[in-house]
Amino acid sequence: MSLDAFIPWWTAQVAAALDLDQATLESLYGPNDPYNTNQSVRMMWKFGVASGVYGTPTGFANGVMLDELPFTVEGWLDMLNAIYNSQYHPPTFKVLQN
Hints:
Number of helices: 4
Helix content: 40-55%
Radius of gyration: 18 Å
Distance between the termini: 63 Å
Shape: globular
Strand order of the largest sheet: 1-2
Number of domains: 1
Number of strands: 2
């Protein structure tokens, strides 16, 4: 799939799964991207190479290379929620004031 075909397909998937505006997501891939996504992706690629990424697709969660990657938005959300829910969450506490 070409990049020009992938962007609308992927942004439609993400927009539908997360109830976001697809046009806004697609704009992040254009030349007027306010977040400079292209530069960010290049920096992440360099980080991956320095971290030992040896092929694609490769993904990381909390700095740990994943053996298997989900290929849907729902799959990523399930995986990330499972990681988050498995971590220690301290009980709430009350801050004492003087």
